Amino acid sequence: MHSARWPYWHHPRFSSGRHQNNKVMSSIWEALYASGVDLVLSGHDHDYERFAPLDAEGRVDKIRGIRSFIVGTGGARHTEFGTIRNGSKVRNSETFGILKLVLHPIGYEWEFVPEVGKAFTDKGKGRCH
User: Fold this and answer.
1) Using an 8 Å Cβ cutoff, are 41 and 103 in contact?
2) Where do the structural domains in the chain lie, given as residue ranges?
3) Nearest-5° Cα angle at 125, 121 to 127
4) pLDDT, tens digit, for every residue of 4-25?
């Protein structure tokens, strides 16, 4: 079985949200990319955003890139998006909810589960490195 490497922390490295990209996280992202991490979870911005797999410079890398999710949808007021960043695939700043992750032997699935009465969702699957 695959040994998943899914780090998480508060400030996202890449973000289209109110706080935008956080260069302080650059060295951590470089180390994670070099070690083959599959995905990263963060918050800070009060929105939901999913990125395509990115390299350490923020370029889309479908082979070795790290998929990242910003899930700041736990109950504080939402904030609007600013400049949309390279690789941003899905964004929502109007729905509270959680991100459900399921690990499989060679991959994973994600699903944004919205608050009761809301329709926004995002789901998909990825392969582990």
Assistant:
1) no
2) 23-96
3) 155
4) 566 767 778 888 987 887 788 8
Q: Give, as one character, the DSSP assignment of residue 29.
A: H
The rounded distance, in Å, linking the Cα atoms of 47 and 36 is: 27
Which residue in 26, 113, 13, 21 sits closest to 67, CA to CA? 13
Distance CA 70, CA 47 (A): 7
User: 57-83 pLDDT, tens per residue?
Assistant: 999 999 999 999 999 888 778 889 999
Length of the chain: 129
Query: What is the distance between the alpha carbons of residues 105 and 127, in angstroms, rounded to a whole number?
Result: 9
The rounded distance, in Å, linking the Cα atoms of 86 and 59 is 7
pTM of the model: 0.90
